[in-house]
Amino acid sequence: MKECKKFLIIANELKDIDLKWSKYTDELIRSKGFETRLHVGLDSEGLTDCFDDTDVIIVMGGDGTMLRISHALSGRNIPVIGVNLGTVGFMTEVVVSEIDSMIGRLISGDYRIEERMMLKGIVTDGTESKVAYALNDIVFARENALRLIAVRIYVNDKHFDTCEADGILVATPTGSTGYNLSAGGPIVKGDARLMVMTPISPYSLSRRSVIFGAEDRITLEILRKRKDIECSGLVSFDGAETFKMELGSKVDIEVSPYTFSVVKLDDSSVYEILRKKLGG
Q1: Are strands 56-61 and 80-84 parallel, antiparallel or unpaired?
Q2: pTM for the complete prediction?
Q3: Chain-centre distance for alpha carbon 193
């Protein structure tokens, strides 16, 4: 791969206390004679300017920090590698003890790029439409904590199912190890191209996850099941953007034209990594 000479370090100051590891990485890169910039915080202000003329982004944080960066990139195809300062860290590639080795391999071009698919959602409320993107998942959930939400599901404009549940989530392979996993959905190889739809606490013993192809389009809309119950919900994109849904609102979900470029150093198979992360 391309030898990296210009680095951008993005530090989550809540994870990297006193910026200990971010500063260490910054000084290490400079000591080797290469360019580096250190951006502290995840606010978009000033961050997008840092993306110009950058070979690789090093994210100091956890999976949540990686998700935030995927949204900030807005389709820019810049490779990203994460240093895990969080908990499980499915998306982060290295731990702090591997920082020296990571920098050496990035400088020498000894790495590979894995393209992760993203989702595009079009939220329609009456005549107004909004577009948002997700690396992990799009979650259509109830707004009232004490009542289920009824969702009518279409696939490629054909009625597929109607489900009463706490919600419905549509996940990418990357997101299969997130909320989808907690909801009982399957784990999918990260670089696959497919969508996983999983009901969240469904009011049925027969509801299961369904896997759809990358060419499919899924539509979720609120359905009124009982006349005496108000119909409202929320649709969330990676927890970063959330829109309120009323009766008649819908979200159309399909594979995004954007991808998220992840730097891979570990030659272990995805199944070995899963075993280590899940404590098997």
Answers
A1: parallel
A2: 0.89
A3: 14
